[in-house]
Specification:
Helix content: 25-40%
Radius of gyration: 23 Å
Strand content: 25-35%
Shape: globular
Low-confidence stretches: none
Order of helices and strands: EEEHEEHEHHHEHEHEEHEHEEHEH
Distance between the termini: 37 Å
Number of strands: 14
Number of domains: 2
CATH architecture of the largest domain: 3-Layer(aba) Sandwich
Largest sheet: 6 strands, mixed
CATH topology of the largest domain: Rossmann fold
Oligomer: single chain
């Protein structure tokens, strides 16, 4: 199956910085692909090159097997992280304005229903809440009925309920066969929405695959958490993968039963033990050494 987007050896250099350093990856049709990385990793530059906003110093970007060009511009939709809208227009007027920019458009009533805009169609766009504005921006990105949709941190600044509603909207769009390329600073968002992710740092892709594959490759199945005072001086000389969090000790294990037996033999109380699975945030920090919001 031909990838929707194929990137080969992409390089972009600014004075003193290789913002994109030989990136190669492909995005299959009909999936949600997540690009993660700390600030300064090069992900924005990479996405802007794919979108045609910037030109690379070397390498290539293919869209459906051919050089990205007029066809890509017709079939791509983009929701930027920050978008300025024409003032003194209502939501309805803004949708009509954008629809007249394209030769092919989705039926506006379908977009309105899809993005749940019915209740505020006649509201001035300056008076929208954060969640309402994001839904309008999503609707504008869908006006040309795109094959591939780019979403740049679309839920930043939204409250938890608005974020979850936006997740449902993204999932609904994916169910219609669209390919979604998502950059996000939220690990739970990437895990919930993305079929495949790539982690970028210092201009390079340092890991890619499904969230489940990457977690399995890099971590054990279970993390056991104990208050630090419960295990103090009781884990010395044990062959366990142990890490420290403020006030807590975390033990990574593939064999929970054997590990718990060993700890009990050492006099460790289980009364305050917690168990958790590894998360994408654990993976991100392990690979980059940085907090994603850094």
């Amino acid at each position: 199956m031909t990838p929707v987007i194929e990137i080969q050896d992409l390089v972009k250099i600014y004075p003193g910085v290789r913002a994109v350093d030989g990136v190669t990856l492909s995005i299959a049709p009909g999936i949600c692909f997540g690009l993660l990385g700390p600030n300064g990793a090069g992900k924005t530059t990479l996405i802007e090159i794919v979108e045609g906003i910037q030109q690379p110093d070397s390498g290539s970007v293919l869209y459906k097997g051919a050089a990205a060009g007029a066809r890509f511009r017709k079939e791509a939709g983009i929701q930027f992280q920050v978008t300025s809208l024409q003032e003194f227009l209502t939501v309805r007027e803004t949708l009509l304005l954008f629809s007249r920019l394209y030769p092919r458009t989705m039926e506006l009533n379908d977009i309105i229903r899809l993005c749940s805009l019915e209740e505020f169609l006649d509201r001035d766009t300056r008076k929208l809440s954060g969640g309402q504005r994001q839904r309008l921006l999503m609707a504008l990105a869908l006006v040309n009925d795109p094959e591939v949709l780019f979403l740049d941190e679309p839920t930043t600044g939204l409250d938890p309920q608005a974020r979850r509603n936006f997740w449902d909207l993204i999932s609904l769009i994916r169910s219609k066969g669209k390919t979604v390329v998502l950059t996000t600073h939220y690990m739970d968002e990437a895990y919930a929405l993305c079929d495949k992710i790539a982690i970028m740092d210092r201009g390079r892709i340092i890991a890619q695959g499904t969230p489940e594959q990457l977690l399995k490759e890099h971590f054990g199945d279970i993390v056991l958490q104990f208050p630090e005072e419960e295990v103090k001086d009781k884990l010395e000389d044990l062959q366990l993968c142990v890490s420290k969090q403020p006030g807590w000790c975390e033990i990574q294990t593939h064999d929970m039963n054997d590990t718990i037996k060993t700890l009990m033999d050492r006099g460790v109380s289980l009364s305050r033990m917690n168990m958790r699975s590894w998360s994408l945030e654990d993976l991100f920090i392990a690979l980059t050494g940085k907090d994603l919001r850094g």
